Amino acid sequence: MTAMLWVSTLVATALGFATPERHRVDPAADSSQLVAWHQALRNLRPDPDRGAAVEGLVLERDAARFHLDRGTLHLLPDFDGRTYGAVFSGEGRFEVAVPDPLEAAHVSRAFDVSVEEPVPFRNAVFLFNDLTLTELEPSGGWVPLEPSRDARDEVAEASAYLAGDDGWIDRTVTLPLVNGAPGFFYAHFSERRDDPLMFTIDLLEAEEIGLHQRAGRDKRREVMSRFHRRLDYESGRSLPQEALDIVTITAYDIEIEIDEDLDVVGRAEVTLFRRQLAYDWVPFQLYSGLDVDSVRWSDGSAVPFYRPDDRADLWVDLRSMPSDTASLAVHYSGEMMDRPENLWVRLWSHTTWYPVYEHGRPIPYTLTFHAPDDYVVTTVGERTHVETAEGRTTSVFETPAVRAVTFNIGEFDALEAEALYPDDPELTVLINERAHRRLGGMVAEAGGYLLEQRDMADMVAHDLRNSFTFFNGVYGPTTVRSFVATEIPYSHGEAYPGLVMLAWNTFQWTSEKGFDEMFRAHEVAHQWWGIGVRPATYRDWWLAEGFSEFSGWWYAARARGSIDMYLERLKETREDLLDRRGESPPIALGTRSATSENPGDYQMTVYHKGAWVLHMLRTLMTDTDTGSDSLFTGMMRSFYNGHLGRTATTQSFQNAVEEALGGSMQWFFDAWVYGSDIPTYAFSHDYEELDDGSVLAHARIRQEHVPDDFRMFVPILVDFGEEGSAMVRVEVTGPVTEVTLPAMPRVPDRLEFNPFEAVLAETRTEGWRN
């Protein structure tokens, strides 16, 4: 390690770059305040000198009420000069008036908790930085009172949940407590001690109110519901998350040294502006396998920090910050990648390889990598400098303001593919041919796969290039001028500005069913949806994933020259959605669609149902006479160009749809984005021959599994065989809809309701009944 660093220092010095230094300090010596808070939270206990019997006490916190009907109340011992907690034991009830119907339905459906009925509890622990202490004050004052066993056990349970033996502390609770930030409230309460609920008010969250449960293997807090304060609903406005951030990161300058064993020495210089002066300690995230060697201001002075062992949390103390805007240098080292079977290099985290402050704000980056010259390093941005000496390569990349960066490293061969059209970017495909040759004996025909090891880089490049051209045509050009695709030893894909990471197996074979074309095109489509147009909040995330999923299906059908693959994908995802009918969440829950009980709901809802929504809009906006979808493509292009480089919301997309159609589409978005019902249509028809020889078709549609006011426009295909066909669109609403189609010259060969999977529904045909 020492010799390797000496060689790289020579290279870096010759090129004018500073090599990261290793500064070894003891984190605990700089983090006494955080250590003390961890110990306090780890050892919560009732104060025997400050107790009281309570009866009929009501603690109201925004949308929630805690009824302490009868029992005992103890304060927790003071810490840091203030009282911050209390514990109740006895009989109590919790009520919450969830103001958002979507949220209320989700709590009931996904967690089997009714928000319309009080939830009983026997014990509760309250933590607070608000007026709770004043409201709990008994009329006779606090008196010595021996805590009950229930009170002690409940505090111990909450304590173990908030702070672990290994130094971990729940940062969403610790952040306001350690900083003494006003307005914070946390309640940990239960009827059965091993099954608690948590209610929080956190003024640093855009949606300040949260209801949580303990779930998952690690038993951490799972969001059941999130919503705004009553004042926000009354005023009709709320602050965006960016305005609530403690700091604003304005630039990153990151330098990474990678040795032959793939060990890392890193320096991240973070330029930040302090927004919230009431907060001194700020949490960053850095991969848990990396040791933090030092944190320093630009003048070299040490910055107190706290880093629990084997945890990604990195707490930084800003009290010594020299001015409102300053640069913070974090020096770190350790292991964050390996190379199993001597094939692909595997990064253990693509996101926290540098200290990340959770934000959604685009930031410019300067990225410098020093690595052995038999490896290729690729990342986001433009490579502005590269030089090799003494067996090591230094590469410098500059990025415009982006929301996230990553990198990849490996023994890659590069395929350069020039742009075919003016709006297309130059394309580079990085593939580890050596690794694929070692896997040459694989047999993958089972499951519909064809082994396609010949010219796979060309095949991948073909899809990437053609999908870029296709999306440029239907959505409008991106700002990307150069594009890199690289493989990773995982089964998923990731997209960044001008960079996609694709699963290794899409470079190994191509599925007969078109999954690989869809997968590759999906990641390319993120240059438009998710990067070019950014979802404003987690609730709008389908604008990235659902739009890209639909785009992948759309491209694959064009690439294969067949609609059959597209229809097959619709059928497959429809069956998955029907299997969860009545239980799956609506699209508008965004990234919270997944729960610990049903983690697959996120992909099924945000990806697949989101793609279905676009498919249904395209069908709805297609001209039934000409078959042209120009109204849909024009709307999508207008929406993209109008939001390029900015954020978009579900409401702004609804506005774009309404502008294109010239009327309200609230009914559609209520049903398919904010709702989770899926209809069943039972279709029957009968023919009536008229005196002039023409024929009328009478159709009846029975609608089930949805509310009576559920409505949708569904097409009927009238097929005359070789003589042609026609499409008629009918409005279906209520339990029974009866329509008579326009007169026809003869009885058609076939009458098909909901052809081409036009509407997400279960459809069956039944006999006509007079």
Describe this structure in words.
- This protein is α+β, with helices and mostly antiparallel strands.
- The N terminus is likely disordered.
- The strands form 10 sheets. The protein has an 8-stranded antiparallel β-sheet, sandwiched between helices. A 7-stranded mixed β-sheet has the order 12-15-10-9-18-21-20, with helices on one face. Strands 23-24-26-28-27 form a 5-stranded mixed β-sheet, with helices on one face.
- It is 26% helix and 33% strand.
- The chain is flat and about 100 Å long.
- It has 17 helices and 38 strands.
- A hairpin with a 4-residue loop joins β7 and β8.
What kind of oligomer do you see? single chain
* Envelope shape: flat
The gyration radius over C-alpha positions equals 30 Å
Arrangement of strands in the largest sheet: 1-2-3-4-5-6-7-8
Treating each run of at least 4 consecutive H or I residues as one helix, how many helices? 17
Q: How many DSSP E strands?
A: 38
On the 0-100 scale, what is the average pLDDT? 90
Beta-strand content bin: 25-35%
The level of helicity is 25-40%
> How would you characterize the largest beta sheet?
8 strands, antiparallel
Q: Indicate the structural class.
A: alpha+beta
Distance between the termini: 87 Å
Uncertain stretches: 1-29, 442-452
